[in-house]
Design brief:
The complex is a heterodimer of chains A (328) and B (243). Chain A is built from 14 helices and 2 strands. With 328 residues, chain A is an all-alpha fold. Chain A has one domain: Orthogonal Bundle (ABC transporter involved in vitamin B12 uptake, BtuC). In chain A, strands 1-2 form a two-stranded antiparallel sheet. In chain A, helix 1 runs antiparallel to helix 6, helix 2 runs parallel beside helix 6 and helix 4 packs antiparallel against helix 9. The longest helix of chain A has 28 residues. Chain B has 243 residues and is an alpha/beta fold. Chain B has a 6-stranded mixed beta sheet with strand order 6-7-8-3-9-10, with helices on both faces. The model of chain B has no long low-confidence stretch (mean pLDDT 90). Classes of the chains: A mainly alpha (328), B alpha/beta (243). Chains A and B meet through helix 1, helix 7 and helix 8 of A and helix 2, helix 3, helix 4 and helix 5 of B.
Amino acid sequence: MDTQFAQRRRRDLIMAACLAVVAALVPLFVKDVYVQNIMVLTLMYAALSQSWNILSGYCGQISLGHALYFGLGAYTTALLFTKFGVLPWFGMVAGGAISAVIAMALGYPCFRLRGHYFVIATIVIAEIALLLIQNWDWAGAALGIDIPVRGDSWLKFQFTRSKLPYFYFALALACIAWLVTWWLEDSKWGYWWRAVKDNPDAAESLGVVVFNSKMGAAAVSAFLVAVGGSFYAQFVSYIDPESVMGFQFSLLMALPAVLGGIGTLWGPVLGAVILIPLTELTRSFVGGSGRGVDLIVYGALIVAISLALPKGLVSVFSMLTGCKEAAR
Amino acid sequence: MTALLETRGVWQRFGGLVANSDVSISVGRGEIVGLIGPNGAGKSTLFNLIAGVLPPTQGSIIFDGEDVTRLPAAERCQRGVGRTFQVVKSFETMTVIDNVIVGALIRNTKMRIARQKAYEVLEFCGLAARADKLAADLVPSEKRRLEVARALATEPKLLLLDEVLTGLMPVEAQTGVELVRKVRATGVTVLMVEHVMEIVMPLVDRAIVLNLGKVLVEGKPAEVVRNPEVISAYLGDRHAVGA
């Protein structure tokens, strides 16, 4: 049975490598900028959702305030670049570190809350942060920050002529988030997190320090989401509070994981690949003047999947292989 | 030799309710001690105090020569207190082996070794065949054994068993009794709360009877069951007269 477990881990890794290679080849055939744009967003949300899944899926602490960390990453990078000329690469790491620290500082009081109370706290805190940024003149207040374009370069991580560099960075980000999850899944932390999610009292009796486990998950999760936010700031080159810290980001990070399979390795990827193109396509085809038809389609899909497959889409695969293990 | 566990004048009040009053017990190394008493006697409270779920209102708890009164549950587990829960608390979305790995990780940092250790414990508890099943799919008696396996994986010096034999069919209960004996044979001290007298009495070396939050009697099982005070606590005064 030991080898069976090792085999499954290896199979996951090989499958991920194959998918990454295939994804990397897609832009060779797809030249349409609009489609490329959707692919970038899909990969970004796969990465974000995977990161969200660490705290909310594995550790079971449902956060609907992760837009806060996304915004922090975006703002840290943009501010460091425009005010101090710090390269976005450093901004990315700085944004991640700041987010991780803030996640722990917020976790200190919030992790004493359980269930719905915790969820509400995360929403409220993200909204407060949004209001603060909207009224912070130095950071551009409600007008936001225009990131000056200084020509294509990897150093400044700016590309005006082609979306491809963004695509490959987003792919790398998705791979990193996946790999981190894969690695953590079979580590002490991974086991502790799942134990904390299932039954904190029993976990505590087995020597798991529940509070510290939650803090660890929050830090890793916030760090990765902030890196995604940094990337997004560079990608759109203009940020304002609502466009990087709005509540919709918190939802868009959670939904792929929820639909794909919360607390699973493949759920966020699968969810993002289905949801994000669908969102973008419905928006461009039936959205626009229709105002909200795209959201109706979106909502209907979510209701349908959660009713038919409460454990997420990955459970279909485990049903097919008849193996419950894969659904984890 | 000093006792492995000692409670000294432990009180626990919940508002106006006194769940434990001045409870002083001791458990020697290698013993199997039964903690019995009618419903509401304060057994579970005392258990939770020993496991570190909450600190006592008053008094102290000494484990392995150290005062652990203020230590949280996780810290006590680290020092060698393992426990099961009366209402089973399996990690339902995890497999049986993964449940046990959580316990094994406290003594083993390497995943591969923790997994191996967990598997050995499952074999010891007769659950190896169910290793890859989800904990949620186990039948109640197996879930009870999983509780024991998980606690054993933390390599405890003292194992606290909270009604692991209650509500089982006679054959299952007998398997449970064998398991407890096997556990003791590996050098683990056992303190068990139990309801079913006829199962627990032949098993334990010593019984402590709690009633109304106080220690009523303690001694050899055979003496305890004949004690008039115990009989009246369980059955009412009328029955004690004949004893």
